[in-house]
């Protein structure tokens, strides 16, 4: 990765639907160079996909929370699979510190959020406890 690759990634983070021409202009390279670099970044696994940015409130997910879990770490692979099957879990990460896993949960409303936390997450055998922090306002920086 060099400075040109970084500029290409920045351009695609700002607009995943940007044309190769606009990516090339942002990176200050030719269209052919930008095309070959984007192709290489995809094949090397640096770019793992192209997605749409979605406003959670406007898409029907008005209630958000960060939920931390303390878990039986030996069961991480099973837990990971179970979390992937919960549609309201938008992101999760295995972390170090006072808790083991952090989740971003986006639900229709507080009742739906309550169901996810108190019924679905606590029903997973490896989950020892949860703590929920409601999101009042969030900002996507990219």
From TrEMBL:
Gene3D superfamilies xrefs: 3.30.70.920, Winged helix-like DNA-binding domain superfamily/Winged helix DNA-binding domain
Record-level GO BP terms: response to amino acid
A single GO molecular function term of this UniProt record: sequence-specific DNA binding
Any GO CC annotation of this UniProt entry: cytosol
Residues covered by the HTH asnC-type domain: 1-62
Keywords: DNA-binding, Transcription, Transcription regulation
Classification via InterPro entries: AsnC-type_HTH_dom, Dimeric_a/b-barrel, Tscrpt_reg_AsnC-like, Tscrpt_reg_AsnC/Lrp_C, WH-like_DNA-bd_sf, WH_DNA-bd_sf
Pfam family, one: HTH_AsnC-type
Entry superkingdom: Bacteria
PANTHER family recorded: LEUCINE-RESPONSIVE REGULATORY PROTEIN (PTHR30154), TRANSCRIPTIONAL REGULATOR AZLB (PTHR30154:SF34)
Protein name: DNA-binding Lrp family transcriptional regulator
